[in-house]
Amino acid sequence: MEKNLIELKKISKRYDLPSQGNVTVLDDINININEGEFVSILGPSGSGKSTLLRIIAGLVSPSQGSVLYNGKPIVGTNPGVGMVFQSFALFPWLTVIENVKLGLENKSLREEEKMRKALSVIDMIGLDGFEGAYPKELSGGMRQRVGIGRALVMEPDILLMDEPFSALDVLTAENLKRDLLELWTEKKIPTKSIIMVTHSIEEAVYMSDRAIVLSRDPARVISDIPITMPHWRDKQEPKFTSLVDRIYSILTKREIKTIEVEEVQKKKLEKVQEVPAGALTGFIELVDDLGKKFDLYKLADQLSLNLEDFLPIVEAAHLLQFATIHQGDIDLTEIGHQFADASVLERKILFKEQLMKYVPIMEKIVWILQSKSNNKMEREFFVEIFEKHFGAEEAEHQLDILIDWGRYAELISYDEKAEVLYLESETAAINE
Ligand SMILES: Nc1ncnc2c1ncn2[C@@H]1O[C@H](COP(=O)(O)OP(=O)(O)OP(=O)(O)O)[C@@H](O)[C@H]1O
Prior knowledge:
Blueprint: E1 4-17, E2 21-34, E3 38-42, H1 49-57, E4 64-69, E5 72-73, E6 81-84, H2 96-101, H3 111-124, H4 140-152, E7 158-162, H5 170-185, E8 193-197, H6 201-207, E9 210-214, E10 221-226, H7 238-255, H8 261-266, H9 277-290, E11 293-295, H10 296-302, H11 307-319, E12 323-326, E13 329-332, H12 334-341, H13 344-358, H14 360-371, E14 376-378, H15 379-390, H16 392-408, E15 412-415, E16 420-423, H17 424-431
Parallel strand pairs: 3-8, 3-9, 6-7, 7-8
Antiparallel strand pairs: 1-2, 1-4, 4-5, 9-10, 11-13, 12-13, 14-16, 15-16
Helix pairs in contact: 3-4, 6-7, 9-11, 9-12, 12-13, 15-16
The chain binds adenosine-5'-triphosphate (ATP).
């Protein structure tokens, strides 16, 4: 019988934010993690993956629910975990061995024993000979090896990793993944389970036994997919690619909601993706050039874009109804094709029509400008309205992107110096 190492029971997390009030980040998360499992956690940016990992580590307490380790609720920090961070989190003034030994700080071991364990881990993670080096003398990959060493020296039951490879270049990351996987699969480390947050579906399918997919706003478990292929896995193999496709499709399906006009009208002031009109136009042209349907995952791969950069573009194309998404495939709509084939001027007209139809927040800006007798309004006015909905920082970003879209569509104009928005017709009149 499989033994439950970690049980997350009805975990919810809420933050009380001054600008947005009470925000639920995690909602009713129930996950059991068994001994022997390597689990990946995937989800859109800002969905709460890191928060969930920190709750498992006992670094953040849930608003509701409990974390059980070996069947018992944890109180304070979880004694069974070691954590690896994306940013390495090394102390620059300590040497490699001193940084690794930090993992044993709270253990009542004799100094010689700490030294012995640290040296053995350094050897294991391939840093033999660098014991006395300082972080600044090491490459990024070596620094992350120290980060992993500091977690492993504790001989934790559970290794938690928060995007451990995302700060590294591709080759270094591949190398480190292989080494870590070797330690794990050949049981060279006493770790009973690994939980890794990642943005990379391919990384999850390559390394782990299970991929848990979270939604956003709030995060709930939307899929829990077993990955049963034996190691070492071949990334070109059809089984591998179809699993990557499947997870991609789950993630995108949740990300890109089908938006009906009536629905849009009800949902005033919904956020738009921060994708400049230029990038969006280029993307629509590209999809048009590629032919009818295209697998989103392969397209992202071909463009060398990761999910985080790629999804917003797809989502914006979908919001404006230039493209449809179906089971992980993207296809241009009739308007999308028209747009791709149109002249510059025709494109602006089409973009304007789609904006007014499907982006209520844009409609609102135009409506406000129209209702003013001089057809102009200060940026600050819109920022203040948006702040109530999106928070201070996001309000500025949202307005910037809407100005970019509105300018492209020749719907509105913006005087950057005076920080004033105009209706396009009004700008023309002023310039005369
Ligand atoms: N201490 C905090 N106070 C307020 N809000 C927070 C806090 N920590 C996280 N959040 C919010 O919780 C949400 C989830 O954040 P989290 O970092 O867990 O997401 P994530 O999925 O790991 O994101 P990413 O993929 O971008 O790293 C975000 O909206 C974030 O702003």
